[in-house]
Amino acid sequence: MNEYNSFVNEEDTIDLLELIHVLLKKWWVVLLAAVLCCTVTLAVTVFIIEPEYESRSSLYILYNTAKETTVGDFQVSEAVTEDFIVIGTSNPVIDAAIDALQEKGYTFTRKEIKKMVEVLNEGDTRLLTICATSNNPKDAYLVANAIAEATAEKIGEIMKDEPPTILETAEIPTEPVSPNILKCAFIGFLVGAFLACVVLVIIFLLDDKIKTEEDVEKYLETSTLAVIPYIGKKDRKKEKAKRKKKKKE
Q1: Which of 16, 40, 151, 244 is the right S-S partner for 88, CB 3.0 to 4.6 Å?
Q2: CB atoms within 10 A of CB 171
Q3: In this predicted model, what pLDDT tens digit does every residue of 20-33 receive, in sequence order?
């Protein structure tokens, strides 16, 4: 039993070495596939995928600003910030933002703004961040500021207190946040190389032809009596050229 296991392990090791040898021998195929896939990914990223721009505004949430602020007010502010995240994406806030934008001559639907806007509370702080993403940088800027103002007014109305302070107003973004061209190109390169390796491995596993003396001994468990060398077209041409020279001489 131990002899059988050692034989199987030996066979597996030889197959693995042969597989590595095949991959190394066909390195140019792997490289070519990786470069082609990288090129296609770059083309799709640059010419087909539309870039997205992100603009952010932020609110500072502090409960009971009309009176003297206590430690308890800070704790309450932290507790209700999660509620304000829901308020920031509620229909009344979005509708108020739509009305404010229409007064400036810009038209958006509720569905469009819901798709663009995300309200975040980063790091368990009292800061509420309104993030707007769009293919148009100006749209992202307009919506982020409109939602921030509408959210502040709605929070002040609900809390029956002064509206939260707008700590940072949104600006028109100059650089897209996605897609990341370098990242996409790198991923395309890796995918191309991986697919090429997979195809080469499949071809290797399906190839059951006996090609060498070692294959005869390995698979047929017998020895070879003689070996007939393969003569390719180039070798034949060389032989013919040599014979012609000899005849001329």
Answers
A1: 151
A2: 14
A3: 888 899 999 999 99
Specify the pTM: 0.67
- Cβ contacts of residue 7 below 8 Å, gap of 6+? none
In the numeric block, the tokens 């799709």 are attached to 44
d(CA 130, CA 143) in angstroms, rounded, equals: 9
Report the 10 Å Cβ neighbour count for 247. 7
Q: Are strands 127-134 and 165-168 parallel, antiparallel or unpaired?
A: unpaired
Query: C-alpha distances in angstroms, 123 versus 57, 131, 135, 164, 235?
Result: 16, 15, 28, 18, 74
Burial class (CB in 10 A: 0-12, 13-18, 19+), 102: exposed
pLDDT at 240 over 80: no
Q: Which domains does the chain have, with CATH numbers?
A: 1-49+180-207 (no CATH), 53-168 (3.30.70.1130), 210-249 (no CATH)
Between 65 and 16, the more confident residue is 16
Could you please report the per-residue DSSP string of 203-242? HHHH-----SHHHIIIII----S-------HHHHHHHHHH
